[in-house]
Write a structure and sequence with these properties.
Length: 183
Amino acid sequence: MEQKKSEWREWLKAIVVAVLLAGGIRYFIFAPIIVDGYSMMPTLHNHERMIVNKLAYKIGMPNRFDIIVFHAEEGRDYIKRVIGLPGDRIEYKNDTLYVNGKPYDEPYLDEYKKQVADGPLTEPFTLEELTGQSTVPEGHLFVMGDNRRFSKDSRHIGFIPMEKVVGKANIVYWPLGGVRIAK
């Protein structure tokens, strides 16, 4: 009888440790997220499931064009692409991104640019026209969705404070046929 109690205790300890470990990993390191909507098409599709690396930016800043998850004002998490880093001047003209006066290629937009027949995919703007500021403020990001015509992003909600960034999202794990690293 005593052996059965000891065996149950060991099983219970193992289960408790496993639950605590899984909870800790989920809360502090990785978290699942479901893509909700079409703002990141064609890179990400509605209802795809991704893993968010919460440690990616605890020490440093995101890189330009990273796909990030952040807490939006409406109490929801958004997933967008980093376009502007602190100190950057951002401008769009003739469907081309200019950062600090230098044009940047955005190959993830090529598919949509080919489909657009009635004007540019990304309407022309300068950061100053949108925000009243000439550069991205320190500790903030300027983000945009890949589906430029149908994305609620920094053009509408403003700069994203770094403390609102949850982490980097680039691993799609569901549906199984679509498992990939999103770029």
